[in-house]
Amino acid sequence: MTATPVRLDRRRFVADLIARLPEDALVVTGLGSPSYDVFAAGDRPGTFYLWGAMGGAAPLALGLALAQPGRPVVAVTGDGEHLMGIGTLATIGAKLPPNLTLVVLDNAHFGETGMQPSHTGLGTDLVAVAQGFGIRGAVRITDPAQTEDLATRIKARAATTYAQVLISTSEPPRALPPRDGVANKNSFRAALGLSSF
Amino acid sequence: MMGGMNETPVPAPPSWQEDVFAALKNRGIQQIAYVPDAGHSHVIDEARRDPGIHDVVLTTEEEGVAVVSGAWLGGQRAVLLMQSSGVGNCVNMFSLLEMGRFPFLTLVTMRGEYAEFNPWQGPMGRTTGQALELMGVTVLRADYPDEVGDTVEAALDSVFGAGERVAVLLGQKLIGRKKWERNG
């Protein structure tokens, strides 16, 4: 008999991970609950929150990681957002920037639209998918004790990392990050010492 | 394509394609994201050879909209190369550009117009410019080889000097008639 994998509390996991990130880490969040989770963990200057552009979190993080090889870049997104742009894993697999990490908070549901079941509960194995696209360092997180190891890998910038984090379908109170993308872009660039354009 | 390896020397790329790469290089482009097209082949080859440029081959064009925006967040200039059919794939992702007012340049080789043999290229080719404009992207166009370099430079000025979102449509006439039958 196989044990049902433990599903983590999303808010607690994200707070633990963000608290362990090095100060120079840059974060991109996919639309919906992952944005709320990251914002609830404390607004950091190097964070870009998506409120739309579904499927865009991973490729946005890829362009950023290539541009900033000296800093860890972490995309935090959900299974629905990620699945819409799943081909991006092939694009990432072709470049494998060592400073890039994708963290997929996977509750196997489309939470924002009323908890309809998603593909990851209907047959898709994201770790196998990521490995198949050439991201060898793909792991599944089912235990809060793995957070420290993930943070260590993010800090090391030694290989593209992919973490599927099994979370429960709990819906913590919404913590809404700023929706002004222009202001977010400018403050993000200012944190890197860059002008607006 | 010929079959053997040593038969014909590789023909020189059309000079307008060299002008495109020179313009991108001169203006400090460091990432070139693309879905390939014959009209972009020289720029893609050069990007892959150039250690100062990240070449990013995409599975679909909308990824490139986000890659280019991410590059800008991190302080690099990037450009997206695609064929006209790819513009339709990008439509919702273009909202990222407007919401963040990201500087954005895409070079689009046109299909579905001059001497087009494949009718399936028509629906998207005929609406490429309108689709871009509907989503807030300014459209420039070049149809003759000697205007390509200058048009791309003008677009680069608008994008990185003024923070605009610009597409340059490269007319199908530049690429010429596609050979549909392969000989021996």
Write the layout of secondary structure elements.
The complex is a heterodimer of chains A (197) and B (184).
Chain A: H1 10-20, E1 26-29, H2 33-40, E2 47-49, H3 57-67, E3 73-78, H4 79-84, H5 88-95, E4 100-106, E5 109-110, E6 116-117, H6 126-132, E7 137-141, H7 147-156, E8 161-166, H8 181-191
Parallel strand pairs in A: 1-2, 1-3, 3-4, 4-8, 7-8
Antiparallel strand pairs in A: 5-6
Helix pairs in contact in A: 1-2, 1-7
Chain B: H1 15-26, E1 29-34, H2 41-49, E2 54-57, H3 61-73, E3 77-83, H4 84-89, H5 94-100, E4 104-109, H6 122-134, E5 138-142, H7 145-162, E6 165-170, H8 172-175
Keywords (chain B): Decarboxylase, Lyase, Pyruvate
Organism (chain B): Streptomyces diastatochromogenes
InterPro entries (chain B): THDP-binding, TPP_dependent_decarboxylase
Structure report:
- The complex is a heterodimer of chains A (197) and B (184).
- Chain A is of the alpha/beta class and 197 residues long.
- Chain A has a single domain, classed as 3-Layer(aba) Sandwich (Rossmann fold).
- Chain A contains 8 helices and 8 strands; from the N terminus they run αβαβαβααβββαβαβα.
- Chain A has helices at residues 10-20, 33-40, 57-67, 79-84, 88-95, 126-132, 147-156, 181-191; strands at residues 26-29, 47-49, 73-78, 100-106, 109-110, 116-117, 137-141, 161-166.
- In chain A, the strands form 2 sheets. In chain A, strands 2-1-3-4-8-7 form a 6-stranded parallel beta sheet, sandwiched between helices. In chain A, strands 5-6 form a two-stranded antiparallel sheet.
- Chain A starts with 9 loop residues before the first helix and ends in a 6-residue tail after the last helix.
- The relative contact order of chain A is 0.20.
- The mean pLDDT of chain A is 96.
- Chain B is an alpha/beta fold.
- Chain B has a single domain (15-175), classed as Thiamin diphosphate (ThDP)-binding fold, Pyr/PP domains (Rossmann fold, 3-Layer(aba) Sandwich), CATH 3.40.50.970.
- Chain B contains 8 helices and 6 strands.
- In chain B, β5, α7 (145-162) and β6 form a beta-alpha-beta unit.
